[in-house]
Design a protein that fits this description.
mainly beta, four-stranded antiparallel beta sheet, 1 helix, 11% helix, 41% strand
């Protein structure tokens, strides 16, 4: 998958109040794969479509991308990618199979 650049709906800036956006444009992420890091943290490979995402008390227009994310002590860590091969490569490097230890 390669992502395409999609502008926000006409008349809206890159950042706006939640009241200005339609719910069908809110980002709905899809988890493609899950795994575990060597430290035991849950790992996810996620597809993120273009749409409005949370930016504190505002909404921010995000372009479509893929992400590798993991949670450490309640804080989300990770990285976003434009193309699947790079995202999958990072996911595979971080994913730890305890059976292989």
């Amino acid at each position: 998958m390669t992502t395409a650049t999609i502008p926000p709906p006409p008349g809206l800036p890159q950042v706006t109040d939640y009241g200005n956006i339609k719910t069908e444009h809110l980002v709905k992420c899809t988890v493609l794969e899950t795994g575990t890091t060597i430290n035991g943290f849950n790992l996810k490979l996620i597809e993120i479509p273009a749409g409005w995402a949370c930016a504190g008390s505002m909404a921010r227009w995000d372009q479509a991308c893929l992400a590798v994310q993991f949670l450490v002590d309640g804080a989300m860590h990770g990285r976003r990618f434009k193309a699947y091969p790079e995202a999958k490569g990072m996911f595979d490097r971080l994913n730890h199979d305890p059976e292989m230890s």
